[in-house]
Amino acid sequence: MNLVESNSETIKKASEIIRHGGLVAFPTETVYGLGADGLNSIAVAKIFEAKKRPSFNPLILHIADKNYLHNLVEYKDTRVDNLISKFWPGPLTLVLPKKDIVPDIVTAGNPTVAVRMPNHPIALELINESRTPIAAPSANKFGHLSPTTAKHVQKYLGDKVDLILDGGKSFVGVESTIIQYHEGGFYLLRHGGLAKEEIEKEIGEIKSGKIDVNKPNSPGQLPFHYSPNTPLHFYNESLLDSNKKIGLISFQKNKIDFSFSSQKVLSQTGDLREAASNLFLFLHEMEKENLDLILIEPVEEKGLGRAIMDRLRKATYRHTNQ
Ligand code: TXA
Ligand code: MG
To answer: In 3D, which of 18, 198, 11 has the Cα closest to residue 91?
Structure first.
């Protein structure tokens, strides 16, 4: 039985699991979260594995100290500080430009990261004891409701987490409100436990809709999904061209006889968890190498392989259809 009553002893044990790269489900005031060390890419990959999400979604980093935020993000706008001093700890998540320390798998390749400070003593003690920000989505399996009790979590994910901390019922009961700060404007990404009107009292009008990063200051329809600017295709022999600078991202060791300008291996041992943890990082790194083309090998569609392939289909689609 991995469901335990929260007390200083079990929270300490939970923090050790987090520090060793394991998964802990924990209560927050909104819903229960499925937590891992937010600075450890492999630990974060385990979250996607456990949730059985068919794709990667960026995750929220949970912190226990307002000042710690500055290690994770960069912004210069006192209205953001006003929101933090007024509403943290609480059900408000802020999406801000990330610093390098935040792993790419946490943000699913996006240049921004979502952060919040939960208003729950057990969550705060766990984050403090773990001495790291905790990445956590709601602790449900894909397609199910967000859990508001430890029993719900056990039902959905009991065999997938190392420990479930029982802290009673989440008293807000709905997820946090998510606001993105982008080039001087605030955008509502998700309604949640804190009313939009309350936030607008502090900072004025909040815009709705997704942000088109190519058109500063205008909400557009572009999804927030990351895809590299260099053309990206699944590996296919007919795309090999010795006049082009081509990068190859192979799943395991490359056996293709061609002189690639750059090569990376997602996992030498064929471990999908390791592959997932490297995926966005490698795409970013190759994007900076001024290649004409990036080729990537498909992976087997089992476990995390499904999420990897879903992400890659979206990222290659853009280049196949231009
Ligand atoms: O109340 C909550 O927010 C709960 C508790 C556990 O904190 N967490 C939660 O996480 O609901 P999750 O992963 O189920 O939902 C987070 C949402 C996702 O829809 C994700 O797409 C969005 O936040 N998100 C995270 N990072 C983002 C980013 N950098 N840009 C845009 N959206 C982001
Ligand atoms: Mg969720």
So the answer is: 198
Ligand 1 site, CB within 6 A: 28, 30-31, 33, 57-60, 93, 95, 107, 110, 112-114, 136-138, 175-176, 178, 189, 224
CA 196 distance to own-chain centroid: 24
- The CATH superfamily of 3-208 is DHBP synthase (3.90.870.10)
**Which of 65, 188, 74, 48 lies closest to 116, judged by CA?**
65
Q: For 62-105, write each residue's pLDDT tens digit.
A: 999 999 999 999 999 999 999 999 999 999 999 999 999 999 99
Domain boundaries, the chain: 3-208, 232-320
Query: Mean of the pLDDT values across residues 248-254?
Result: 94
Pick the CATH number of 232-320 from 3.40.50.11030, 3.10.20.30, 3.90.650.10, 3.40.630.40: 3.40.50.11030
Test site for ligand 1: of 87, 93, 115, 145, most ligand atoms within 8 A of the Cβ: 93
User: How big is the chain, counted in residues?
Assistant: 322
Whole-angstrom Cα distance, residue 38 to residue 106? Answer: 7
| CA of 190, nearest ligand number | 1
Give me 163's structure tokens: 């420990």
pTM of the model: 0.91
Confidence of residue 53 (pLDDT cuts 50, 70, 90): confident
Strand pairing class (33-37; 134-135) = antiparallel
CA distance 167 to 120: 9
* DSSP state, residue 206: -
* 144 CB neighbour count, 10 Å cutoff: 14
Q: Determine the atom of ligand 1 nearest the C-alpha atom of 108.
A: 29
Sole residue written with tokens 């939970």: 14
Q: How far is the CA of 136 from the centre of ligand 1 (A)?
A: 8
